[in-house]
Amino acid sequence: MKRNEFINLCQNYSPYQGNKGHSSLTHKILAEVSSYHDSQTEKLPVIWLETNCSCDNNISIMNTTYPYLDRFLEETIDLLYSNTFMAAQGQDAVNNLKAAANKKAGQFTLVVEGAIPLQEEYNVVFITSQGEVSALEAVKWLGGLAKYVVALGTCASFGGPSAARPNLSQSVAVSEVLDREVINVSGCPVNADWFVGTLAHLLMYGRPELDNRNRPTLFYGYTIHRHCQRRSYFDNGNFAENLGEIECMFSQGCVGPKTRADCPYRKWINVNWPVEANTPCIGCTNPDFPDGSTPFFTPLSENSNE
Amino acid sequence: MSQTINFSPVTRLSGLLSVKVVIDDGWIKEANAKGTMFRGYEKIMQGRKVTDAVYLTQRVCGICSLAHGAVGSYLLDELYGSTLSQRAQYLRNIMLVADFLQNHIRHFYFFSLPDFVEFPNRPPWQNQNLVDGRLKPKDNQRLVGHYFDAVKVAQEAHEILALFGGKAPHQHSFVQGGVAVAPTADKINRAQALLANILQFIREKLIPDTELLAQVYNDYFKIGVTPKRLISCGLFKFGEQNQDDFWPRGVINGRQFAQPDVDKIEETVANSWFEEEDGQLEPAPDKPGAYSWTKSV
């Protein structure tokens, strides 16, 4: 309905025509508003593949608030395939995946949760009558059809714990097996806001601005250190002697100075974050996590990995 | 006539699973549960400082994260001869319980319920292959509603964990020697309010829903019945040296009760893709007869 038509409609149903006119105006407008709302409810079609990961990212995403998970699934994304959430199992689940990949080719967002083992027999996502489908095959197939590819969590973004030494499965980041742009939303696990916010950005404004590690600058633009509430302790050389104390955690192995994430003000589940809990940031969003952060509790300046 | 069925993927779990079933003359001859993911966590843990254990082992699994971290902490407490304050004992168990609550609520509603309840035919529940739906429409509708209610209470359980643990999953403050966060009045008060919501949900929804399914599907109790041999290795440790179990350990064998003999529990790799070399387990994806990356005990 055009603006003029809408104004005419309102004028024709003026309340001055009596009580009946008043309620019929509401009735008319509600129908219009409802049809407008329906036309605006396009959601982001998502195919979510789980590979070498602990599935902690999807658990973390279940902790999303405003929107809560149900609203996120209902209003932001159309989750066409997800090992964790879908009701279908077996061949029916595989059929869902094939149907989604065909019907939504060029439109869907591929979310990969986990690293990709180059030793293909070390991760099989499902088995059909035609044989096993490895994580590598599935990611290459779907990655070629997707509009956007989102690497969810540090394993998918950079290898993460799944690729920690000695990395027997030869796990690598999603970006290393795909010849296209991959948006990395790292974290071990990801903070629900980083993932929900990235998908909301894709839906509302398209591709977000990315940093030199292909992460949305919206969440990974600055270091933990820059925004840390305990920065003044660091600047004054006031370091904690133990975990559990209120001073700077650098002495306890905090890698906040080299870690890009917004935990100090984003927080986890709205209530806390590792440094506020009197423990060090272990740099779980970093490309070198965990091997570049271990041994934990060892100051960055003394860590042999640095 | 022998027939092989690959039921894959088994969905709604943490990890990747397929089941291969061999049917012969209407009888199941073989049923192989295949864990199809290998990361090699045992190897990842080797050659690191012991104090890496708590944070790193939590990354084994997202839904039961703290269970791994807690065991790491207990072992380090023993290694360092730590004496745990009463406050640390309580706080640790509050965090562990909060993770359990989150896990159980999500397991029941998100992972199990779609096997019994018909869901709306829209993503992510489209083309649900419910083979034995029995609930009356009214009950079905109520349980679907409770799935959505569970979203918030499971989040609230993890909020309790984050409140004292810094984040969830993979909390930070339940570590060797105790707990890094103090139980201040504001935190206790907030945790109690969150817990009150969770308890209300459990009493008014989770328990009645469990009872309803147990009643409607009561014939399921007779499927695959095994001898009544049950084991508990104890849960929720208290005491200055973690020496007491809030839920006691024990073995029930028929009418007999005994203490578990942990030395008799063995990890085996008979059907797993592992082979022993120089006392170490090495991955062996081509091992004949093996079918899974998971081990058995």
From TrEMBL, chain A:
Keyword check for Glycoprotein: no
GO biological process: anaerobic respiration
Residues that hold [3Fe-4S] cluster according to the record: 263, 281, 284
Domain Cytochrome-c3 hydrogenase C-terminal: residue ranges: 220-296
UniProt keyword Transferase, yes or no: no
Subunit structure: Heterodimer of a large and a small subunit.
NCBIfam families found in the cross-reference section: hydA
The name this protein goes by in its record: Hydrogenase small subunit
UniProtKB/TrEMBL annotation, chain B:
Coiled-coil ranges (or none): none
Key words, A-Z: Iron, Magnesium, Metal-binding, Nickel
Domain of life: Bacteria
Magnesium in keyword set: yes
Molecular function terms from GO: nickel cation binding
Keyword DNA-binding among UniProt keywords: no
Pfam name, any one: NiFeSe_Hases
Record: residues binding Mg(2+): 42
Record-listed Ni(2+) binding positions: 61, 64
Region (Disordered), start-end ranges: 274-297
UniProt-listed PANTHER family: HYDROGENASE-2 LARGE CHAIN, UPTAKE HYDROGENASE LARGE SUBUNIT
Protein name: Ni,Fe-hydrogenase I large subunit
Origin species: Halanaerobacter jeridensis
